[in-house]
Structures
1.
Amino acid sequence: MISEEEHFRHIMEFLSGLLAEHGDTDRHIRYVQGYTEILAREYGRLHPRAGMTGQRLSWIVKAAGLHDIGKLAVPVRLSERDMCLSENDLRLIRDHTVRGSEMIPQLFDFMGKDFCRICRNVCLYHHERYDGSGFPKGYKREHIPVEAQLVGLADMYDVLLHGPRGRTSYSREMVYYMLMNGKCGNLSPVMCECLENAREAMETFRLAEDGIGGANSPVSA
């Protein structure tokens, strides 16, 4: 009988292959997990009463690997960044947040309700923004779960830095400037504080295949 961790890992390996067809490479997923871990640890250090236990941190990092799982319900053709998108295309793309949250309990019920709740929050709300300019619900301020804010920030950081299909990539200094100054939607004061304090760790983090140095590998890897 395989363990819970093995079961989770096997599902993740299968999903990673599928997500790559939709523009989310395994490399992007692991970078988002790594950045999420750095930010979550800093959040826990800054807010010791917020309940960022080792178990919660591990679940959030695992959830970071699932943040775009809903893209599996989006037509592959829409993953081509250089194509012209209609209003309906944009709606389908943005709907990946809702679709992802619906998939979680079907795939990961064996991990327990608390884990599924964190994953659903991440899937559904990682594109929400502090000023209410995000989607799918336009939530703002404290209505956005912390885990979704952490993963959303990690996702933006990697997208800006490594520039997936058809997008410009920026230097680490420019990425930091853009995020801190609301160029990609306003961050909460708490997320700004986490990013500011964790700036060096974020800028030196590398996956093993990309060079030596930086933070450790994600806890869920």
2.
Amino acid sequence: MVNEGIEQVPAAEQRARGAGGGTLAFGCMTAIGAVCVLLVGAGLGYLLAFSHSDPEPEPAEPPVQDRLAPSSAVVVAVRDLAQLQSASYHVERVIDLQREQQRLFGLVKAQDAILLVAAADVTAGVDLTRMGEGDITIDLEARSVSIVLPPAQLLSTRLDSERTYVHTRDTDLLARRDDVLESEARRRAEGLLQQAALDAGLLARAEKNSARTVETLVRSLGYDRVEVRHRKVQEVGGEGVH
């Protein structure tokens, strides 16, 4: 029996319509997938480009300004010098100074330490004010001069402020930070560097150079024979006795 008013669609046509609808849905899904792949690729490309680009510079810190309070300088001493500087050594050394402290009634040992990189210029020469009347002998006829110079001595030992600095300052938890420890390290550095220059032959070089300098100067005055020597020094208790 066939109902009136209802159009009957053959089975073959129904199958054709079903097949067409499936093809359309598959095409839509393929297009959506392609768009997603393009978006993911663009995102990865942007991330790779950003990762290889130069990072933005960090913001610069505000400048540090030093303010020196005004004060007046006072000349407390004046000394006239007549020194011939003839040799100078530049010496460097690391000073590891540790000061041990007793805490909790001596039950605990604490430490305040400093590591100082020290550099100094040690200068030696001759103090011409120590020359006496008989130290210069002149023979005008023979055009000769004999000069006896004082022995070479240390003239100055100065720490190089540009090369001397505190590398490390370490204070234990129970230790008291000693404000004068750096000053003590600098004082010891000055003495050790001075001794190192002496051990390296500073005074001998200073005597040789000063004798050559004085001889050259006197010869320029027209003397043919010039003899320059240094007065001998006998070391007694670390001090020179003539």
